[in-house]
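Anyone? Bumping this.
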Amino acid sequence: MGNTMVSEQVLQLVTFTLEKEEYAVNILNVQEINRITEITRVPNAPDYVEGVINLRGKVIPVINLRKKFGLYNKDTDDSSRVIIMDIHGVTYGLVVDSVSEVLRIPADIVEPPPPMASSMSSMFIKGIAKLENRLIILIDIDGLMGGA
Amino acid sequence: MSDFKMKILVVDDFSTMRRIVKNLLKQLGYENIEEAEDGAQAYSKLKNGGYGFVVSDWNMPNMDGLDLLKKVRSDPELKDLPILMVTAEAEKEKVITAIQAGVNNYIVKPFTGEVLKEKMDKIFERLAAQKQ
Amino acid sequence: MNDEMEEIIQEFITEAEESLDRIEPRFVELEQKGQDTNLINDIFRSMHTIKGAAGFLGFQLIVDVAHAAENIMKKLRDNEISLSKSLMDVILESIDMLRLLLIHIKEKDGVEENVAPLVQELGKALKAAMSNLNNKEQAGISVKPDIRAEQSSKASKESESISPESASEKPLNKVNVAESAKVTENAQETSKSSQITQIAEELSQIPEIAKTTINDSIKNSESTQAATDGEQKPNEMIQAAKDNVQKAQNLRVDVNRIDKVMDLAGEVVLVRNRLLNISNYFDMKYTDDQMTEILMEAVSFLDRITSDMQIAVMKMRMQPIQKVLSKFPRLVRDISASVNKDVELQIFGEGTEVDKTVIEHIGDPMTHILRNSIDHAIEPAEERIAKGKPSKGKIVINTYQRGTQIVVEITDDGKGMDLNKLKKKAIEKGLLTEEEAQKMSDKDAIDIIFMPGFSTKEVATELSGRGVGMDVVKTNISLLNGYVEVSTEKDVGTTFKISIPLTLAIIQALMVEVNGVKYAIPLSPIEETLKVSKKDINNITGQNVIVIRDNICPLFDLSSILGFGSNGNNDDLDFKYLIVISMGDRRFCIAVDKLVGQEEVVIKTLNGMDTTSSFVLGATITGDGKVVFILDVTGMSRNLMELTRA
């Protein structure tokens, strides 16, 4: 409404769901999105480490975001996906309930996270994007993997 | 006018040095550059013919630059081949020996592309003058 | 252009480091052999070349240090000074400095070393060596003074009288013309004289060249020439020529490129495995189809070349272990000098080839063992003589290949380990109880030295007393998937025997299954596999054990080790398969559900995850595309043994 859109910065995000809430990561970090393949469990690993997968001959760790965020566990199903991310040159997979869409939003609609955001630790949240009828939680990839 | 198609042999036992000299020559426009690791290898390459110019280091194992120079000068097929000797500052005194042995010119490490060009130009100018 | 420059710099660093690696042992050789012209020439040339290239690349500090060191080598070469220990010390110091400078360039850390004190020291050492010689001559001690030395001392006296300013004054030009005229007399062709004059003119622009040096240099280079010509033996020349042919066939390749090929080869293996599966399927379904036969043939051909290719690629990463060994003569020299001991080092088998990773990681543990031997094991000369041993201590490094392992033995002829003393120390330090010490076998007692926090030396010396114990040796070698064994005899000596797999990229593994999941266990530490009935397993104070040929061996369930709980659902199995692991002299058993078979597996590194407590050293991908973890038996052994001790 009458706001100037001159030097507007645009964010490109990949959005996905976890427990009915909508989350997003920057598309620049996303390599590809795959269906769940066979995951091999890692011995003596924290429970949010779902295991490792074979990505065209490379062995990469897969993080279960539900467990990482302390949400209750749910078996993967047909809509479950692994988002393959490149974070500072290291490849990770993130298991999510489903992937929704690629979204372009102006950067200035992102607000800083509220002091106590839902059930998950606010250190993984970069901000919250408020769209019409939608709230999207932007994930802070560095914060997430720093704790991994 | 320099002939940029001329085949040049760069002789040095240190591969980094060969690369540096090669690079400088390329910057000057020369395209046809070959390498040898010491005098012995250089001499056998030269014997195969086709070279128009040699840039040689002095200190090398097996056959050093001075021996290569002497060998080339005493070889009827190669005796007129222009040779530029690369020396280090500490060896300037040795230059006289090289001149006696018939070196065309010498160049002191480290040198720039311009200095190299200057030396090469001088050599070829003088050769041209001698032919007249 | 920037990339090109970057590449040249990288190449320079590698080549310079290689040169230093090559000449360093030659110094020690030089010290033993005395004034050896070939050795001196070789070292001089390397310094000189490093200086030259560094000049081009603008690494002034390297130029300064190499130049100062080269000056000394040059005087040595020309017999103007003679070799002394103090001279050797400063030159070796300059080699260390050059290495340090190269590291700074490599790391791009921007750190600037202050080389001025070293350069000054080098200059001082040279001056001291020169005046030594002059004094001798003046005092008439030298019976037959070297002609060249005499000349040079004259020359230096003369040049002393010419101040730097006067050297660049105009009259020099005249001198130069005169000199060049003299030179012309010697020249064979008159056409050269104009050249000479011209070059001499150029020379005259260089202020520091005085006429004396020109004069001397002519005589000098002629006589040196004759000397070196006479000294080069024919067989040496043939050898040199041979070396040269070999060198010419070498190609320097960036390791990353080789690793890339290695990765790709690994992936081809995976595709090959899949194709094998598919072709087997077709073979069963369409047995009579001629195309099936052709397919089978093609696939089996692919199978063969893939294996060959894999081996060929691995070999590209192999390097002679000499790369590591060459630094030890110097190291032993320095350490033994610092503790006032005389120790001789002998090296055998330096041509043995091992994987690059082994080269990179075996140096530190070996250094540590050598330090320890010189510091603790080799007795002082008086003590050795009293024992009837030669006064000079001896350390032998022997390297050889045994099967798929590389073995490195480090043997000293020192006092050997006093096991009772070791036990006593360990009890004092609270690492052992009195009771444990009594029950301990001799083998276990030797292993005390590898316990974290143990060091037998009463007084910590500068060398070994750094708070780093021999446990680091064990840890480092475990990282290479290897192990250390120690044997010792009182007053005869001690041998450290390190065994490491030749390559870390592909290993022979035993595939096992637990709870329906496959794991790969490296074959090298596996002593045997057994099938046992459950009733053969005993429990002693909570620890499962099994008796194998009268030896009690602790037994662990793989499922519990890996944190997947005891495999309750499989407890109804009547039989268990046991894998007997032997690490050095330590034995234990791992129980699994099934033995699948032996396989050659390609190790994939695990990035992005913390595997410190996972007991995995990597993963591999099987023919059907599944990820299988390769277990870290060394880590397990350490952990499990601590458990049983506790």
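Late reply, but here is one note on the structure posted above: Confidence is low (pLDDT under 50) at residues 1-7 of chain A.
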